Amino acid sequence: xxxxxxASVVQDAVDLAVQCCGANGIGRDLPLSEFYESVRQFRIVDxxxxxxxxxxxxxxxxxxxxxxLEPLSxxxxxxxxxx
Length: 83
Known about the structure:
Elements: H1 2-21, H2 23-26, H3 32-45, H4 49-62, H5 66-69
Helix pairs in contact: 1-3
């Protein structure tokens, strides 16, 4: 959970910094372009954020009772059970 949250917050911060600096933000004069590349790599090295979010959701839904899952059944099997 932390990896997804931190990567997202850092991505937003670097993106805002690049946006504020305009064309200078993507040039090699400032370290922002290096930060941007590093953040992007950080987001994909341990797996895509979407994969992590799915794992987090699966673990969160495992503890729910079947009656609590009923409203979610229209979206498919929320816990990823087979069969």
